[in-house]
Amino acid sequence: MKNNLIGLMLLLGLTAQAQNHSHSSTTSVKYPNIKGYQTLSTDLHIHSVFSDGNVWPTIRVQEALMEGLDVISMTEHLEYQPHSKDIPHPDRNRSYELALAEAKDHGLIVIPGSEITRSAPVGHNNAVFIQDANPILTKEAQDAFNQAKKQDAFVFWNHPAWYAQSPKGVPVITEFQLKQIKEQKLHGIEVINTGDYSEEALQIALDHNLTIMGTSDVHDLIEWDFTKKGVHRPITLVFAEQRDAASVRKALFEGKTVAVFNHLFVGKSEFLVPLIEASVVLSDAKYIPNTEILEVTLNNTTSSNLLFENQMPYTFYHHAPVFEIPAQGSIKLQIKTGEKLDEFTLRLKALKAYSAPKTQVVAEWKIIPLH
Asked: Which of 14, 161, 208, 335 is the most exposed place for a label (fewest CB within 10 A)?
């Protein structure tokens, strides 16, 4: 009874937030735009009671609004329907339709999608930007991929390292995946799912030019699975030309993404480096009076803690070579430049920002001290 009351209170709270048009909260995800693109926060792998989730689709919309997401997709399992006795629905588009109606006046973009659910070696795959989920529900897995291709869907490989299908926790790319990639029927791969990060999946993405994805794959309340644990859901940051579905689709096919899970960033360096550089805004750069120590304030504009390591020949006066800027916080860094410089480049390695397995990116900021 107690659990039921807690769940009811949470659901009522979510509903009240959405009805009051409160599109952000203390749990909001925040990441800056980069030059030439809008940075859109997306979760393209979520479930409701219309497959094996435990909430109604409208709750997924309300959760996304509370967290300040830009885009979601209801990706219900086509083949796996454990609630079918209670919620029979021959139309596999129904979850999307309910979420779309809920999001109508709130600015959240809802993308039509479905999950193709098969045993290994096919595994689980999400098809998003579909036109109709029903024809994708086929007996043969290859027919499902063919139908997704016919609908111009963007398809990505879900949790390829999931131990239920890959007992060693390492993704195994088979002839099936290689065939889909060759025929342009598989376009992306999850490197982060639920909170699990797979370096091997990242390597597969790089080797086969697959779009790097991060998703929550949420089944219960976001509050229970993530927020109460002090973390944000995993998301994919999509670098789109405009804030609309067509631009998101284009960016996904072009691989313009970074997967994020709290303080972990994974993506190609061409997008990861400008994202990290835009995430830190420098201010108040000046030399401490009567010294050759440059003091500068580093402001973290994101909802992630940012961990850095000094990559310069100059050392710090106060901080260790490795330091952290808290989410939405700032620090004052004192740099021993040895002489008073008119111009200076701050060079730091982002220790939790990976462009390849065990490879972190280095970011730079130009500083012109005040005199």
From this structure: 208
